[in-house]
Amino acid sequence: QVQLVESGGGLVQAGGSLRLSCAASGRTFSSYIMGWFRQAPGEEREFVAGIRPSGGNTYYADSSVKGRFTISRDNAKNTVYLQMNSLKPEDTANYYCAARLGGSFNLRNRFEYNYWGQGTQVTVSS
Q1: Parts of the chain with a pLDDT under 50
Q2: DSSP structure string for 13-62
């Protein structure tokens, strides 16, 4: 079992930055693939970024966030981060941290994640 708690969301002006954190419980955090997803009102939950257990491989949604967002993890602190720069109003959403063990090569499929945090709201004003 893994429990995930996100923090770091808030209100920011367009062009600003935020860093989201996701703290995980449990001793086996370093075994989990971690992902960040987001969901805007009326929209489906979508993949933002993923990172493999060692941190050596990262994946991003296509053009919408690549180059602006960076996912990283600190296995010693049981924490995964999402650094978000050059934020745009369309980035406004509830951001969720998720964890999975193994699964397919595709980190973008939200249905393969077993554990989810409660979400943290990010609002970007224009």
Answers
A1: none
A2: ETT--EEEEEEE-SS-GGGSEEEEEEE-TTS--EEEEEE-TTS--EEE-S
Q: What is the pLDDT of residue 27?
A: 77
Name the residue type at position 121.
Answer: Q
Structure token pair of residue 26 = 């449990």
Residue type, 11: L
Q: Are 32 and 14 in contact (CB under 8 A)?
A: no
DSSP 89: G
Task: Tell me what pLDDT residue 102 has.
Answer: 82
Which residue do the tokens 């980190």 mark? Answer: 107
pLDDT of res. 106: 87
107 vs 100: CA distance, rounded Å: 9
- Which residues touch 43 (CB under 8 Å, ≥6 apart)? 93
